[in-house]
Amino acid sequence: MTSPYGLRGRAAIVTGGTRGIGHTVARQLADAGALVCVTARDTEEVRHTAAELGGIGLAGSVADPGHLEEVVDLVLREFGRIDIVVNNAATNQPYGPLMDVDPDAWRTAFTVNVEAPLRLVRGAWQSWMRDHGGTVVNVCTEGAGHVGPHVGAYGTTKAALLHLTQQLAGELAPKVRVNSVSPGLVRTEMARFVWEPGEEQIAAGLPLGRIGEPEDVARAVVWLASDAAEWVTGADLLVDGGTRVRAAGTATGYAVHERLRADYHLPGA
């Protein structure tokens, strides 16, 4: 299916672009005509996804500033421009009460979820967008707006990313639009431990009656990246199936929080 948002000839970078939301965003951008560069840690997945999309890719960690510099250089060398940046790569670790969080793990979470998006936007700005304009979309989370059990580190970093989005929107206007998308619970591998054991219960508690799919989020990202949203900047678009308004229609508890409490002692968490 062809996207209604014409992005032909524009160049996009998608971090965490080989799985879940990032992969679907990359595919929908390519379907809209964009030239896409994906980055993720697994070399084979990056190679496969780049070939699938007819684009390019570079394996590495967004926590490595050198990797982000290489991504910017690669895109400019191969595509000659950088029009769209989608900061999707993230970590949901460390998991557990903040009083138990290892300081090194806390710093890593901020490096991946907050510092890396800033570094990539800065690279794109200095090398192309300052003179030619562009759009940035950061993938945050519905949970950035409230607290939850055992996800304090993740929520805090995403709240910081939400503020960073708004700060950059003000600083980089009018050349660059900067927005965010905040998904609710989406069917991804990173969130599998939450949705898989009790999907029916969680879906029943949402006004729209189902958990999200990567396509739901990707459509919002592509819209914000396109000219259809040309007068939108500094916005956070909730794509959460009604999670924030569920209390108006049900008296039951929030099943997602029940799952998070139940899975506190996750293997490897």
Automatic annotation (TrEMBL):
<dbReference type="GO" id="GO:0016491">
    <property type="term" value="F:oxidoreductase activity"/>
</dbReference>
<comment type="similarity">
    <text>Belongs to the short-chain dehydrogenases/reductases (SDR) family.</text>
</comment>
<protein>
    <submittedName>
        <fullName>3-ketoacyl-ACP reductase</fullName>
    </submittedName>
</protein>
<dbReference type="InterPro" id="IPR036291">
    <property type="entry name" value="NAD(P)-bd_dom_sf"/>
</dbReference>
<keyword id="KW-0560">Oxidoreductase</keyword>
<dbReference type="Pfam" id="PF13561">
    <property type="entry name" value="adh_short_C2"/>
</dbReference>
<dbReference type="InterPro" id="IPR002347">
    <property type="entry name" value="SDR_fam"/>
</dbReference>
